[in-house]
Specification:
Chain lengths: 456, 174
């Protein structure tokens, strides 16, 4: 029989697992965390000022103008929404496929999803230019007719897709944490902590009847989230694909966007997990090199899918015989924005190829650097799709360049402040690994069963 | 509901012991007993004789409702209440409405399933009485309430001890 590697190292007992995972919640933060948090919070304050300026002065502060009406905000929206997809893939799709290794990273990946969707959600709301009227996006009986929203518009599909995705992701994440909140409550020596986690745990006690309902609910939510996550990036791709613009109007977009989303999301998971392993050394027994290797394999696979999509797009542009379509793709690679295209190709297709080597998949500094490159590459992918298609379309008199301004950079930079602030807070107030889910898989790959625990 | 019900509880340290104990207590004819564990124990439902959760039916009906609501909303607003010709498309443009219908199906199904869990598990219940704080960390328990048929504290203490309980204690309220 082929031996399985242990999912959790160090022959932990049930109590050790509880102690290890609850430790960050129950102890005061160290210097490293405080340093990172202050940095992230400064970025967040900078972001709030930036967004305040953009709201007060209007969208004209950013480089969006004719002919490039969609710029940084839409590019960065698609970027952050894509990041979120890996979290749902890990928590829902890998759950349905019975991938036990997912347990160690699922909670943090879901947190990443929730925060990435929150970060992303702001952009289209602000990009309307009049964010104080954003409630008009929802169909509600109103005094303007009632004038209803246009259900035939992909932008409205996005409103439904992203808000449903945010709601269901938050619920899925929260329900997963309820038993762990009860654990923290029961361990709490401090009265205030007991009250707060008591409220969060909803009074969970872990009776067999409750677990029976709970497991079914978890399965159902996983089943519902799976088509949901695929639909969300499909609908995001419809924002482009339904338009008649060459470079956007292609049928490959839904699978191409979903693969890209999973690719970028896993890169972000690897970036964050390498940092979590440094910050909380006790988590190295739970998030092992084996876990990181599996994720790096997924990065390489989805990277190849994305590379295939780039090639297929180019081939179809030539094969279609449509001169406008051909021109857009030649212009993408060799026009004034050619540098962005080649940044995208090198970061997304060439650099991840290093993961063919086992040592690269299992070396923390290598995977950290690759994951950063993939994040950069995936931001550029959305930039290439959005900006290069718009900047030269049918009429040469209608051509132009994106007037990138300081504020474009500020919005992009600041959004990381929002995401990292939320994520760092999460690491200290919520159990970062699912305590109740990791215990049933703690014996996977263990040689010595003592005859006590059931083998798996 | 408000009447305090106590009972007797045996605390176990091993998953296998609590499974055996749950089966034994059930075979003795107790109906209202509870097995408490820090994580879902494989095979516990069979050992306790718990039937499959009814939440999937709620999910199905709610999903069906969300789907119909989505169809009705898009149809009524686009065809009945304020018909507008958008790009020469039919007033009822079903393919364009599918994303809305799908998202509403998922939203209603998910929210109702969670509501069903809250209802079935009688949540939220702020800091309910507990037997032992370690039951959410590394210990397991079998609890038999005193209003269960055939309750006999002395006999239960003896049996729970025989089943390997590390501790048997009287619970004032659970």
């Amino acid at each position: 029989m082929i031996k399985r590697n242990q999912l959790i190292l160090g022959d932990k007992s049930l109590k050790d697992i509880t102690d290890d995972i609850c430790a960050p919640v129950e102890t005061l933060p160290g210097k490293g965390w405080v340093g990172l948090f202050l940095t992230a919070k400064t970025m967040l304050i900078f972001y709030m000022i930036t967004l305040g300026m953009v709201m007060a002065y209007g969208m004209g502060l950013l480089g969006v103008n004719h002919p490039i009406a969609w710029g940084t905000m839409i590019v960065t929206f698609v970027f952050w929404i894509g990041i979120g997809h890996a979290g749902t893939l890990i928590s829902a799709i890998l759950f349905l496929f019975r991938q036990k290794w997912r347990t160690s990273v699922a909670r943090t990946a879901e947190a990443m999803t929730v925060f990435a969707v929150m970060t992303a959600g702001l952009f289209p709301l602000l990009h309307t230019g009049r964010p104080w009227l954003d409630f008009w996006l929802f169909p509600y009986p109103n005094q303007r007719g009632p004038l209803w929203v246009n259900f035939r518009s992909p932008l409205l599909w996005d409103v439904f897709a992203v808000s449903t995705y945010a709601t269901v992701s938050i619920i899925f994440w929260y329900i997963g944490m309820v038993p762990d909140f009860a654990t923290i409550k029961d361990r709490a020596k401090n009265k205030i902590r007991k009250q707060i986690y008591g409220i969060l745990s909803l009074g969970w006690r872990g009776t067999a009847r409750n677990w029976s309902h709970y497991e079914i609910l978890y399965l159902l939510l996983a089943g519902l989230s799976t088509p949901l996550v695929l639909s969300v990036h499909t609908i995001v791709s419809f924002d482009f694909a339904v338009a008649g613009l060459p470079g956007w109007h292609t049928t490959i977009f839904p699978p191409y966007f979903v693969a890209g989303a999973i690719f970028s999301g896993f890169a972000m998971v690897v970036t964050l997990m390498t940092l979590v392993r440094i910050g909380f050394p006790q988590f190295k027994d739970y998030i092992t090199i084996d876990h990181m290797e599996v994720m790096n394999k997924i990065i390489m696979t989805t990277g190849l899918m994305v590379g295939y999509a780039y090639a297929a797009e180019f081939f179809i542009a030539w094969y279609s015989g449509n001169q406008y379509e051909r021109f857009v793709f030649v212009n993408r690679a060799f026009g004034p924005y050619g540098w962005a295209y080649w940044v995208m190709v090198s970061c997304n297709v060439i650099i991840p190829q290093i993961f063919w080597f086992r040592w690269a998949r299992r070396t923390i500094p290598v995977m950290f650097v690759v994951s950063i490159f993939v994040n950069i590459g995936m931001w550029f992918e959305r930039f290439v799709i959005t900006v290069t298609s718009l900047h030269r379309d049918f009429l040469p008199s209608n051509w132009g360049m994106y007037a990138w301004s300081f504020w474009d950079g500020a919005v992009l930079f600041g959004s990381f402040g929002m995401f990292l602030t939320l994520f760092l807070l999460y690491l200290r107030v919520f159990p970062a690994i699912s305590i109740a889910e990791i215990k049933p898989v703690m014996n996977v790959g263990r040689d010595d069963q003592d005859g006590k625990h059931g083998g798996h | 509901m408000s009447r305090k019900v106590g009972g007797i509880a045996g605390i176990f340290l091993e998953e296998t012991q609590v499974l055996v104990a749950a089966r034994k207590i059930r075979e003795m004819g107790f109906l209202k007993f509870e097995a408490i564990s820090p994580y879902p124990v494989h095979g516990m439902e069979e050992a306790c004789g718990i039937s499959r959760s009814s939440i999937p039916y709620v999910t199905f009906v709610a999903g069906l409702f969300g789907c119909s609501f989505g169809l009705w909303l898009t149809w009524w607003t686009s065809v009945v209440d304020w018909p507008i010709n958008v790009g020469g498309k039919p007033l009822f443009s079903l393919p364009a409405f599918i994303p809305i219908v799908f998202e509403l199906t998922v939203l209603f199904a998910a929210l109702s399933s969670v509501a069903a869990l809250v209802y079935h598990c009688r949540l939220p219940h702020h800091n309910p009485p507990d037997i032992d704080p370690d039951l959410t960390s590394h210990k397991f328990a079998i609890y038999v309430p005193e209003d269960d048929k055939g309750y006999d504290a002395a006999q239960l203490t003896k049996i729970l001890n025989e089943l390997g309980a590390s501790e048997v204690k009287k619970v004032a309220e659970y």
